[in-house]
Write a structure and sequence with these properties.
Strand order of the largest sheet: 3-4-7-8
Structural class: alpha+beta
Shape: globular
Helix content: 10-25%
Number of domains: 1
Number of strands: 8
Radius of gyration: 19 Å
Order of helices and strands: HEHEEEEEEE
Strand content: 25-35%
Family: Belongs to the Necrosis inducing protein (NPP1) family.
Organism: Phytophthora rubi
Main location: secreted
Protein name: Necrosis inducing protein NPP1 type
GO cellular component, one term: extracellular region
Number of helices: 2
Largest sheet: 4 strands, antiparallel
Length: 153
Amino acid sequence: MNLRAFLFAAVASLAAVNADVNMINHDQVKAFAQPEPTTDSDKSAVKFKPQLHISYGCHPYPAVQADGSVSAGLKWSGPSDGKCKGSGLGSQVYSRSGWYKDRWAIMYAWYFPKGRQYISKYRSGHRHFWSYAIVWVDSDKPGNSVIQGRLSE
């Protein structure tokens, strides 16, 4: 890559990062109401939606609200469950689905305002964390589909 192309890409990346985004406190983001499922894909996504069990750390919160404002997250320092034990305004599960190698894949994602990782005896973390689960079924029709497997992080 030549220097001119590299500089252009770097400037474009910085401009995108500094876009006009309204960041609000993580506990002020209002969740969208779950829409009434109308398609077979929507109905399958609701039928197979995993339930989370949070034994420690942050609980999920909505990441973005209707006016486009996004969560500013939380610093990873301090207690792992500090100030993020669940939103009084509701939570949000994000979902997408599609065919992959003759299986219907439904991907679910949850946003957490902070994430922690334990590497050996050291703690490390970051302001925003996403967790996901993928449910594999044999059909996109909710009435007669069977779970083929799952993957989660």
